[in-house]
Design a protein that fits this description.
The complex is a heterodimer of chains A (467) and B (207). Chain A is an alpha+beta fold. Chain A has helices spanning 19-22, 24-35, 127-131, 165-169, 173-180, 205-214, 223-227, 293-310, 365-378, 384-398, 438-451, 454-461, and strands spanning 9-10, 15-16, 40-44, 53-59, 62-68, 74-78, 93-95, 98-100, 107-109, 120-123, 146-150, 153-157, 190-192, 197-201, 252-257, 262-267, 323-326, 330-333, 339-347, 350-360, 410-411, 420-421, 429-431. The longest helix of chain B is centred in the first third of the chain and has 22 residues, at 34-55. Classes of the chains: A alpha+beta (467), B alpha+beta (207).
Amino acid sequence: MTRMAHQYFDRELGLLDRAAYRSQDIFDRELTTVFARTWLFVGHESQVPHPNDFFASRMGADHVVLTRDKAGEIHVLLNTCRHKGMRVVRYDEGNTPVFTCPYHAWSYSTDGKIAKVPGQLVGVQSYQDSYCRQLDKVQWGLVNARVQVYKGAVFATWDHDGPDLLEYLGDMKLYLDSLLDSQDGSEGGTEVIPGVIKWRLYANWKACSENFVGDPLHGVSHRSVEIADIGPGGVSGASRHGMEAERERLPWLMVSFEDKGHGILSTAPYEVTDANADIFPNFQNPVGPLDRPDVVDAYFRETARKRPANHAGRLSTGMYQSVGGIFPNMSFHTMFPRTIAVWHPIAPGVTEGWRWCVVDKAAPQEVKDTARHHFMRYSGPTGLTEQDDMENWSYLTEATRGPIARRFPYNYQAGLHAERTEPSLAGATVSDLKNTELSLRGFYVAWQRHLNSADGADRADSAGESR
Amino acid sequence: MSLISEQSQLPVAASEPPFRHGGDVPPPLGRWNLDRLLLTKEIEEHLLYEADLLDQWKYRDWLELTTSDIRYWAPIRRNVRYGQWEREQSSELAELAWFDDNRATLEMRVRQLESGIHWAEEPLSRVCHVISGVRLIAASPSEDAADEVCVRSRFVVYRNHQEDEESLFLGKREDVLRRGDSGWQLARRSIFIDQSVLLSQNLTILL
């Protein structure tokens, strides 16, 4: 089958065809060439702390369930009954040893005592009389995604033969570390605060992803929150992240992994020393109802003191000051609030946003409560900052409806003249110019390559059948 | 867990958040009398006054109708197995919520609106708060001399933004109101939006 190899993104000119946000055909191809091939964030280990805990999630347009078996292993199963396709998990979360379909009661389990493979079919109505015990319960189990857990973050893919997660991340891993490592510099040790913010927005999913991958030029979107002084420490002019001046102490670096599509506005990798470990937000006055700036400040100071020793031998990146994205649809902040977002594609002009708040597991409750409250007034549809993002993303998506407007491509030319490689980051193109669209260009180069990969689509389409 | 406020004199000591699936439902207060009728009517009018202020974007005036220790909370709702209803609403003390504001953060919302460059509300939407089903749950110290009340209501809030963007928020509220020098003030509002995935991209308004 010949796939259309149309170029929607012109790397040299920095132009994107608006069809990318509008076309149903492109959207349908994204579901197989992008979402069925790449590593997707499906949730965090701390959401399923106990055996048989589950959390219903999505991978692109597919429903999945993230679950932990009795032995403690994490699995991601396609949430569709192998009999007639009904969703077998209909709760957002819960705990069960067996997933039973509400239609004809086909039952599946991850319990190694009764299932040879995770998600295996363990119960079929009328197994003896109607199937003469001939139905192969292993073959007709729930479809398993390939799963890898990195420092608590659970990623899954349908591409069983592709690169493993660390290879897929490449040196972007260094930046993901500043999201998932503890503030004191020890590896991992983070968790998500219970509760996931979920909402529909009427924008193309890429408008959301690209904003995090590296769009430092949208300051005017957020002028109103700076006027309202929403910063976490109740310090006027300290910015919505509470550290405007501090952030200037380490040089900015825009980083784009063009071969992978990841990107981030952060710093170059650096050695943690006493001279830079003290760069963190300003907490002076309580703002939210449970804010304890004294406890938070003490925790940040204490963890900063420990960071150089705990981080020895490893380079750090943009702790408390990065905003980035893992291709295709996972976004994150490493600042305050420390967050994860996933943009699930629903239709060309409809996206479902999911939002998590990340904290150090070992942090005092007062620190978690302060972070939680800052997150709530920052993020999602009720968040002061992101309400204005959504307004821009949705109305620019809406504007692709006009046939005349559609003739005019989006402009991604900012910083085209200022790109270089960075020896400390494999495969990265970087820019010392903060106000560049470098990472957006990298995102669309990777997107275009996926879109044109006919073999990827065919592999993904048949991924489940071979399992 | 004291969800109301330390200052509250109300006899309600809710062991669980209101409107929980399968949870306790406060029964009617009993045979009606004139004191209760007048008090209910007075509270109802106050809630409608609040709605007028919000619909006319007089948010700063609305703030004046809140106490300095106000808590404004709207939990996330979840799909859970029958009987596991303690997980149906996100927990106020440990989990994320749509709103969990105090006076200072509500004031931030107002300041942002007043900036004139809060794009999600610039130009301002047309908003209509329909408040009904006002039910008096408790009055303290008595119905004829109440200075604190707990009241439930239903809301249907319509928002029309730009040309054709429509949002509809439906749900229930439980409020604690306290009588101040210049009238009733909101000390606590718990809002139960009847959606799990919020189907509107912005919730820029107060409910």
